[in-house]
Amino acid sequence: TCQILYVLAFGCDSPLVLNLTTIAITMSSSLNTADMLEWALRVCQSVAFFLHGILGMTEPWTGCLRHAFRDTHGGMPVWSWPVAGILLWTVAIANFSSNGKVILAAQAYIAAFHMGGVFYHIRLQHHPVAGCAPAVFAVLATIIVAIRLRSFVVALVGWLLCTMIAYFLSLLLVTPPPDREEEKNLLEEQGHSAQDIPRE
Q1: In this predicted model, what pLDDT tens digit does every residue of 142-170 receive, in sequence order?
Q2: Within a 13 Å sphere around the CA of 179, how many CA atoms are in the beta-carbon half?
Q3: What is the DSSP letter of 179?
Q4: 8-22 pLDDT tens trace
Q5: Integer CA distances (angstroms), 79 to 30, 60, 66, 74, 147, in order
Q6: Looking only at Cα atoms, what is the longest distance across the chain?
Q7: What pLDDT is recorded for position 52?
Q8: Is residue 108 within 8 Å of residue 95, measured between CB atoms?
Q9: CA atoms within 13 A on the CB side of 167
């Protein structure tokens, strides 16, 4: 409003008007860039979640993920894999809702779910680096929330809350592996040889 009044009073060629216009264009451009980045990150999330959802839905029959994670003792309930797959598909769709609150809720779920993935690896006593893969999606969710709300502080607080929820759920849902002797006996009962026992 002040800029419009100034233009009316002093004309469009005034240095102050030109400077204010340049600042406004720069701010608009940066906001557009942030919005485009946020959109691109959500696209990456949803593509990944669609593929991960397929893995989750087929896990009870393929055992693909449990084999890849060397989860030989059933660290997660079998039913949890297809449930996770369905929820990932749901989030992949909700990520493009016209309702901003739905998108923020989807990002909260993404952060909690993938921090849960970090704790899954920790409780199964995997190498610490194994938790970095799911942590990437939690970081992306935090960035998206920060861009949408224009506040990294709020996004970080949300991430901390989601991490706490994920930790307590991991205590309920993830069973730590037995010691080496118990694992050997369990594998032998399932018809595996001692060579199938993962080495640390």
Answers
A1: 999 999 999 999 999 999 999 999 999 99
A2: 1
A3: P
A4: 444 445 554 445 455
A5: 45, 8, 13, 11, 35
A6: 89
A7: 93
A8: no
A9: 6
Residue 121: predicted pLDDT: 87
Encoding tokens for residue 69? 């994670």
Query: By 3-state DSSP, what share of the chain in percent is helix, strand and coil, each rounded to 5?
Result: 80, 0, 20
Q: What are the DSSP calls for 15-81, one per residue?
A: HHHHHHHHHHHHHHHHHHHHHHHHHHHHHHHHHHHHHHHHHHHHHHHH-HHHHHTT-TT-SS-TTHH
What are the backbone angles phi and psi of residue 182, rounded to the nearest 5°? -65, -40
**CA–CA separation, 200 vs 46, rounded Å?**
34
CB neighbours (10 Å) of residue 143?
Answer: 17
Alpha carbon dihedral 41, 156, 115, 163, in 10-degree steps, equals -150
Q: How confident is the model over 42-48, as a mean pLDDT?
A: 94
Residue 22 contacts by C-beta under 8 Å, 6 or more apart in sequence?
Answer: none
- Gyration radius of the chain over CA positions: 24
pLDDT, position 196: 52
